[in-house]
Amino acid sequence: MAPSVPVATLIYDGECAMCRASALWLMRRAMDGGALEILPCRSAPRRHRFPHLTDEQCMTAMQLVLPDGRVLAGADAVPELFARIPHWRWVPTLFSLPGMRPVARRVYAWIARNRMRISCAVGH
Q1: Residues of the chain with pLDDT under 70
Q2: Residue 91: burial class (beta carbons within 10 Å; 0-12, 13-18, 19+)
Q3: Does residue 3 fall inside a structural domain?
Q4: Which structural domain, as residue segments, surrounds residue 80?
Q5: What are the CA-CA distances from residue 39 to residues 50, 56, 62, 90, 100 (Å)?
Q6: Structurally, how many domains does the chain consist of?
Q7: Is 2 contained in some domain?
Q8: What local confidence, expressed as pLDDT, does residue 4 receive?
Q9: What's the pLDDT score for residue 103?
Q10: How do 63-65 and 36-40 pair as beta strands?
Q11: What is the DSSP letter of 53?
């Protein structure tokens, strides 16, 4: 069966336990539609396939490479990620609410800066 949505690639910090767990959670749930693959930031396949994305960009925020080549980073990738997951496709609607994107960007930036501490605190 062909995927209902073309495959996007999520590039994440493979050295962060919380990031790995989150990427795997997303990929498993998107498997029904075959719409998502994941690659660790500092992996050879990522560097080969997406050389235009630097390690610094990937380590600052997750990067979602869409099938058309556009790249969404951090909180801007979240609605597109959830749009690819059955039973979670309502989440992008929240991002269309007034003021939600700026708040999501601030929250994401804080989580990204503190991801290693958060991983340790929650036991990842």
Answers
A1: 1-5, 32-34, 122-124
A2: middle
A3: no
A4: 8-121
A5: 10, 15, 10, 25, 28
A6: 1
A7: no
A8: 60
A9: 95
A10: unpaired
A11: S
CB–CB of 63/11 below 8 Å?
yes
The angle formed by the CA atoms of residues 101, 16 and 21, to the nearest 5 degrees, is 75
How many angstroms from the chain centroid is the CA of residue 62? 5
Burial of 124: CB neighbours in 10 Å, binned 0-12, 13-18, 19+: middle
**Domain assignment present for 1:** no
> What is the pTM for the complete model shown?
0.86
Residue 108 near residue 74, CB atoms below 8 Å: yes
Torsion of CA 114, 120, 123, 124, to 10 degrees: 70
pLDDT for 76 equals 96
**CA–CA distance from 48 to each of 16, 31, 116, 118, 119 (Å)?**
21, 24, 27, 30, 29
Q: Identity (one letter) of the amino acid at 48?
A: H
73 in any annotated domain: yes
